[in-house]
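Technical note accompanying the year-one report. For the benefit of new consortium partners, we illustrate the data format agreed upon in the data management plan: each record pairs a sequence with a structure-token string. No post-processing was applied to the example shown here.
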Amino acid sequence: MTVQETTAEPAAFTRDWQEWHTRQENRLAAPHGFLAVTGLHWLDGEPQRFPDAPGTWSTGPDGVVVILDEGGNCSWTQPPYAASTVSGCSRSAAVSTRSGATP
């Protein structure tokens, strides 16, 4: 948590709050910000398909498992068991762990 100094002067407080609010809205509306989320899917051991995502997705002993269709592609920005971004077929997905569990 970030702690910032506050002031009793209403005009300064209002200005500080408006600046914070603008930063917060920009962060939420960023390309990978919270407002970009279009779906939330829990992976398990059973391969499953998702709209606009390449191949089938599941979990395995080493993390996320993606089996691509013929001609499909997928690239990872980090190992799949970490909070990472997956890109393919002009779509992206953020993969993170649940309850902090990693393989």
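Partners are asked to follow this layout when depositing records. Residues 9-38 form one domain.
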